[in-house]
Every structure is written in C-alpha cells, then in structure tokens.
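Hi there. Long-time user, first ticket. I'm pasting a complex I've been working with (about 543 residues overall). I'd like to know whether the download I got is complete or cut off, because the file seemed smaller than I expected. Thanks.
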Amino acid sequence: MGLSTEDHLQDDVHFDDDEGLPQNIPSYPLSDIHSLDSQNSSILTQHHPSLSDFSSSRAPYNAKYPPQLQRRLPRAFPLATVLNHPGSTHEIMGQHDDNLHSPLTHEQPHPNHDLSTVGQDYPPQQVPLHGLSMPGLLSKPALIPHIQAPLQYQFAGQMPQPSMQSQPQLINIPHMPQQYPQMPQYTQHLAQLLPPQPSHQHSQILSSSMPITSQLPQMSAQHHQHYLPPLQGMHEPPYLNSSYATQKRHSEDDISDGTKQRVAPRRADLFRVGPPFSEAVEHRPIFRGDTHERLTPHIEARIDRGFELAGSGNWIGYKRNYFTMVVAFDLGIDFSTFTNTTFYTSRNLAVGTEDVPINYFALNIEAKCSDSEAQVSLVQHTPKRDKGPQNAPPIFPAVPGRLPDHETVKESCNKRNDTKLELMNKIFNFDRDDFYSHQRHNQNTNNSVLGTYPQNKIARVARFERIQFTKSIRTKVTTMQHKYFTLHAELVGVLGSGSKEQHVVLASANTPGLLVRGRSPSKYHTEKTSGYRGPSDSENYSM
DNA sequence: TTCGACACATAGCA
DNA sequence: ATGCTATGTGTCGA
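Hi, the file is complete. Here it is re-exported in full:
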C-alpha cells in the first residue's frame, strides 16, 4: 500500500446517493446505554438508528450497507437452542418477535439485515477496563506456538537513531547493481536489501495491548515518534518526469514525501503492523452463569496489513488497497472454565434489571468516522477480487483465544497447500468436535456455552483479510473540518436464537484516527490539511 | 471529478 | 524453473 497514487480522504465524507446509502446517520449512537434498556425498547439494540425500525424509510435496517454488502456470519447458525436461564430469554425476546431478525443466521447476505450495527449501544463515555490480565488462557488445551507475549507494548532492541527519521526506507531498484537488468517499476525496501534497521521494530509492536483512550492520530504518534516504521519511498522519485511523481511531491503528509512509486503487489513487506488498538471498552456487562461473577473482557486486535505511520504521526491507508486485521478476545478466565459455564449479560428495565443469556460470542469489525454524520463501511473481497463477490466483513463466532504474532498472520496469507492450511486452521479456528473428543466433554451438557455456538467453524482468532473501506466513500472539499476514520474490534454477544437472534456489542477496542486516502491524485495537496493534525499542526512536521 | 471496469506488472506459491 | 495466483495501481471512459 503506502505508495499509491491515491489521494487522501477529503474533508467531508459521504456515501454516494446513487448507492442508496443514506447520509447523516450517526455511526455511533450516543444514547445512554441505560436509556437503551428502557421498557420501551423493543430489544436490546433497538435504539440504533438502523435497528430501531426495520421499516423506517429514514433509517432502514441495512442503511449502512448496500444489499450486496449485508453483514453475515461466515457460516450458518443451525442451532436454535435457548439457554435455560433465570433471565428468561424467552420472555425478553418474546416481546418483540416481529422485530427479531438476525442476518447472522443467514448464510447469504440478507437485504433487510445489518448485523454490523446491531447492539452498538456505545455509551457516551468510554470507560477503559482494568485488570486485563488473562492468566487462564495460557493453559488452554490447544497448543498455539505462535502466541505472542501479552499486554506489553514492546519495542524491540534499541530505539532508532533520530537521524533515521530522515533516511530513506526505500531505494529504487535500478540503483541496485545487477539485480534488475530492466528498469523496474516497483521499489524495494531498504530493509530487504540491508541489515535490519530500526524500522524492523515496528513489526514487533504488540499493538493490541497499547492502551489508547483517544482516537486521535496524534495519540498514536506519541508512542511511535521515537522510531521509524517502514515507510515507503522516502525519496528519489522514480519518475521525475512523470506527472505521477510530480503530483506526489506535493504532499507533506505523505509517507513517501513526494517519492511515489508503485509497490509490487505481492511484496512481503506489505504486511506491516498497523496502529495500536485501545484497551477494551465495556458496553455491556458479562456474567458467568454459574458463579454470577462479573467478568472483564479483553480484546486483542491488530492490523497486519494496509496501514503505515507517516512522519506526521498519522496512520495512513489507501482506499484501493487491502488491509488485514485480526481480533481475539478473552474473559479473564481459563479456557476450561469458559467451556464449563454459560454467560449472560443484563439490561436495565424501568424497574430493575433483566438478565439475558449469551448464546455465544462473536467478533466483528467496524469502521467509523470522526464525523458522526458520515458513515463508513467495509467490504471484503475474495482472492478473485473483481471477479468474485463482495460482502461486508463476516462476523466470527468465537471462543477466547490469543492473537498470533504478526509473522504468523502474514504466513497465513494465500496458502493453498493443504498441510499449511491445516496448520493455520489450528491456529485460527476452534474445532469443537475435536475438543469434545479430547476433553471427553459432555457436549450434551446444558451448562456449557459451547453447546450454543453455531455448529460450523468457530474462531479462536477472527482474521479479516482483503478488507477495504467501501468504495462508496466520496469526498467533498467544502469544509475545513478534519475527518478521520477509526477501526473497531468488537466483542459481540449473540442473544436469542433462530429468528430471534440478536447481537449486542459487549466490548470494543479501537484504533487511533486513521487517514484513508482515496484515489484522486488531484486532491493530494488538499490532503495536507484534510486529516487530523492534532494540537500542533503537523503541516510543519518535517521528516 | 469520481468511480467501475479493465489492464498491466510482479512477487509469492506450489 | 515454470505457470498460476493475488494484488498494487495505472488507465479509460461513463
């Protein structure tokens, strides 16, 4: 990515009208969570504008995505089990049967469903969770050798020298002797040609464990200002005479600082660790069904491809390019405990509270815009890209797991070898049948949440590959407002079952602000002021 | 001006 | 080494 000819996201972000995507619908409803739980609520998530009224012409249920991009589970949900719980899901759900639909139960996208927004009852104030240690999961039965060390924001080795900040990360291949007899059109990172540089540290950042409470890009910058990520094309424009290079040179915020070169599409170093995610923010409580202990969710998430840190401190991605994101969660209990109990959440009623069983957990990603008036959605391509279908990113039913390291995610990409695929499956997926057989687990037991998971593949780690910001984003240059995106990793609780299945966001973690560059080179200069710059004007930033 | 569609190019994979 | 694949991105034209 990095080196595209793409411009940036403009000052204003809209959906194209001709795609039927309504504007001015807040992507983050800020209604208080308690008000959401009032008796008048049709269901847990009903206050979301896209959920509250399926038939509303103003805010259709699937407002956020066009029909072809409706959210869906990777697999069907065949079970219709309803947990036996004092909270009585039956009663709760029974109040609003007609409104209870779950696109997640459909294998195919459903034009009237948008799970992506179900239960996004984000509280007005995000309260960081504490005590995010997760001792138990280290002892879970599955052997996952790729697990990274948890919870520390790690910087490998020594910090790079300040001078590195101004040193080129890329060189033009023609400058390399003998290697390329013909004038190449692509560049190669210095890191590939020279001994390890400080930029290497970047890939070792455990982004998911970096507590960041602000979404502002500058917040991330402060954690990275001491080293230089592997940015692209720092100097030496390959096409000095081309309009392409000329255009690129106008950007001060540009990672390559005017040295735009094409990036080889399969270059290994397209995989880079992106911005760190915040700690999990709790949206709804999670209780154990057996002890009624309130649990502290922890979300691990990392972007492994598609974003890089510019000198200005902004994380930059490109609308036309893929990004990859992985998400895992745990509840602060060991895996065997997880598999031997049930869970429930609660909602507030006008009088008292009501417990609602969680049939299973799921992991989801969302994109949001700093401008709550603007909506942003994501699409996922198949390897066939244009020749294949395009859907919204799936929502993964998931059990607690640990995030594989960056290299593992990178290695998991585009493997076709059966042996390798199987290996990756063991890392990213949870085989419940295998677990039952090895644990002699009583799968008929009524007190295990595992029994109410979908029958098909369950994730340990949700891996979202080939994700792009929707093409529906378009820009407008009439405002001076700074706009940026954030990516959110969400732990979803699936309530009810069958046609009554509901999804509520239990917790989420988010990136700092991201700049996503569009495809119009003519907007390149404007980009310098379109992105959030933080308290100090990064226009003055010099690499 | 923007974007879908197509095209080109190149590194990874088997 | 060879051929296929995946994907960054250049380009055309509606």
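A couple of notes from our side: The first strand of chain A starts at residue 12 and ends at 15. The mean pLDDT of chain A is 62.
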